[in-house]
Amino acid sequence: xxxxxxxxxxxxxxxxxxxxxxxxxxxxxxxxxxxxxxxxxxxxxxxxxxxxxxxxxxxxxxxxxxxxxxxxxxxxxxxxxxxxxxxxxxxxxxxxxxxxxxxxxxxxxxxxxxxxxxxxxxxxxxxxxxxxxxxxxxxxxxxxxxxxxxxxxxxxxxxxxxxxxxxxxxxxxxxxxxxxxxxxxxxxxxxxxxxxxxxxxxxxxxxxxxxxxxxxxxxxxxxxxxxxxxxxxxxxxxxx
Length: 240
Description:
It is a single chain. By secondary structure, this protein is of the alpha/beta class. The chain has a single domain, classed as Carbamate kinase. 36% of the residues lie in helices and 19% in strands. The chain has helices at residues 30-44, 62-67, 72-96, 118-126, 144-154, 188-193, 201-209, 224-229, and strands at residues 10-15, 49-54, 101-105, 114-115, 130-134, 159-164, 169-170, 182-183, 185-187, 214-218, 236-239. Strand 1, helix 1 and strand 2 (49-54) form a beta-alpha-beta unit. The two termini are 21 Å apart.
């Protein structure tokens, strides 16, 4: 494919809630969410159809809630509501930036956001709208990584882009080991054999079974999202 054309037509971007915090200790950093939206806008201008699964760790973590005596399922539902709050903030910022965003929730809160309906999500993507999937899978005990793998498979995404604070998958922790090297490509089997912890086991297995590649890249690095979409050597590709 020519270098001036995107390598992917439809993508699923997995954003952690923590990505929205910037340098803050919690919550949503206004400058950070605006910068992320500008990167998304740059990609959509290329004609790429983009959906987002957003986490809620900047507001509430179900696992952490469960660890301090709270019922795990209740804590996970609270985490899902946190993702809805993030999705609303993300969509609002997108709409103000000239994009058309639609939030679809896996749990019904119809006065606030519309429910997730697969044909409707596909229609929005085909119309050039950005779809923000909220509330994870709608079930406790599943992470938003699993929601990203599930929604990615459902909408026929060509790749799941996992946005992190590190620019790929390394042989060791690059902060602790200066000799650590970034993997440009890895097969699912290699990633499992090396126990690299790219996604939780359920999400990883779903992507592997559906032959849905995962690209790990840094959302902090300016222009990285566009470089990934253009097929450049950015981040780490995990493939079947």
